[in-house]
Amino acid sequence: MVTKFKYSIAIILSFCLVGCGGGGSTSIDVSDSRFSLTATVSGLGAGKQLQLSNSSEFLTATGNGSIQFQNELTTGSQYSIAIASQPVGQTCTLTNGSGVVSKNNITDISVSCVTNPVATYTVAFTVTGLGAGKSVILNDGSNNKTVTSNTNYIFGSTYLSGDSYSVNITAQPIGQTCSLSNGSGTVSTNNITNLVVTCADNPVATYTVGLTIFGLGVGKQVALQNGGDSIAGTSNTSYTFATASVTGTSYSVSVTSQPVGQTCTVSSGLGTITNNNITNVVVNCADNAAPTYTIGFSVSGLGVGKTLILTDGNESKSITSNGNYTFANQLSTNANYSVTIATQPNLQYCKVSGGTGTVNNANVSTIGVNCSTVYSFSGTNYVYTSNVAGIVSGGTARTYNTWIRLPSALTTYSTIIGQGTLSSYRRSALLIDIASRTPSYNNGAGTYLMQLDFQVGGVWSERFNINDTNWHMITVTFDGTAAGTGTTFFIDGVPLSNPTANPVNGFTKSSVNTLNFNNSITLGGETYDGTTLSPQTGFVGEIRNSNAWSRALTASEIADIYNSVAFPTNGLFFSKD
Known about the structure:
Elements: H1 5-20, E1 34-35, E2 37-42, E3 50-54, E4 57-61, E5 65-68, E6 73-74, E7 78-85, E8 90-95, E9 98-100, E10 106-115, E11 120-128, E12 136-139, E13 144-147, E14 152-160, E15 164-166, E16 168-171, E17 176-181, E18 184-186, E19 192-201, E20 209-214, E21 222-226, E22 229-233, E23 238-240, E24 250-257, E25 262-267, E26 270-272, E27 278-287, E28 292-293, E29 295-300, E30 308-311, E31 316-319, E32 323-326, E33 331-332, E34 336-338, E35 340-343, E36 348-353, E37 356-358, E38 364-378, E39 383-385, E40 398-405, E41 414-421, E42 426-434, E43 448-454, E44 458-464, E45 471-478, E46 487-491, E47 494-495, E48 500-501, H2 509-513, E49 521-523, E50 527-528, E51 532-533, E52 540-549, H3 555-562, E53 572-576
Parallel strand pairs: 2-10, 11-19, 20-27, 29-38
Antiparallel strand pairs: 1-6, 2-5, 3-4, 3-7, 7-9, 8-10, 11-14, 12-13, 12-16, 15-18, 17-19, 20-23, 21-22, 21-24, 24-26, 25-27, 28-33, 29-32, 30-31, 30-35, 34-37, 36-38, 38-52, 39-49, 40-45, 40-52, 41-42, 41-49, 42-43, 43-44, 44-48, 45-46, 46-47, 50-51, 52-53
């Protein structure tokens, strides 16, 4: 503590005067004495300073202990000490800082300092534009804040001065987008209140429908449609329909026009748009299989209770009645077909017309199967028909035509078809004779003569060999001219080369012309007035489809009959199927 020198001298002198005496009393005047103001500081932090004031005098303390104002005060003077400046980070409290000086130094002034608590600050933000019923989530790095209305919000975290802060939006409201301003910075000595979250409605989201084409041929085009949009696909790539649609819109992709020679199919083409573009629609194109066509046929003439079996090489079809039929196997264009008879019906012969050919972009329906009765002869039976209308007589023109099947060998001549009867010796007949019976035409065993024989008129003969047990069509035409010159024999529609008049009997045309016939025709032999078979004329074999005309058919007509192309009716006076 500091003590003023003047004050000390006054005390000493006072004591001296009393001690020395002098015989009388001594009085000391202290009215003009001066007294000091001393303050005691405690709690002041190291390196910190505190400033006190008394009137116009300022006193700075830099440490703990007593400090004294320079200006002294006289008795009765008032003093008022104040804290002019607090130390940084501390708060000091003054005790006994004011009063009136009496007759002593003022020493009871005290200043007690304490460290201030650490200051913390908060981060706050304001939300605007958030839609009703929507929410946005923000994060300050430590805490999430879910906001559901437009107002002010404060994060729970606190910051010291100098700390950094950073706020982000972690979840947007449905159908809106929120932006944040002033979202990061450094805390000074104030709360952060200038963050602003501004929300706005998103534009309506729309999505497209796309597809990918596979397998489309070069130079080909497929047309596709979705609603009112269309795409003309010309290559194997991805396409997108022009119109974009909102979530919840249905889509349906379909093919409206197929590429030539191909078929395209759509997969995953139906659905509903849900917050994404549609990219999984696939259009697969593949070459069409070659078109196929059916092979059909019609059957006529099949007898009741009889069975005919036909085949196309793949399927055997059993037929029991007349009508139209179709094989199951189908063929493509340019494929060859062949329909044949696998099994003939009993006592009938069926023939296929148009049974072979090539498919030409259409079903085949022109094949015909005609069945006729087969007459079997053993040399002792015959078929006799009387009262034949329009029958010709004499040596007038005629044609005989029939189908025969011979055994492997003949022992005598036999009549295939005869006109008239033996009893009157007025007849003509188409006969088969073994060559050895007529020495002039003997050409070895197994060779036969086909003869047109006018009884008491003349015989025309031709060599042939058809003992192969197959069916053959036999035809003879006579044009009514002189003997031998107007007769032609045919085998299977083909004329034989050398029709020759038999000169042995010396018959002439004139004698042929005098012949008169009754109106009967016999198959398988010749009879005496239709009642008794001539033993030497009995036919051995099978006969079918026998016909006679009152004219000489042309070679082309005969070929047409054989090939089932056409059947002439002009002049026909006898027909026996």
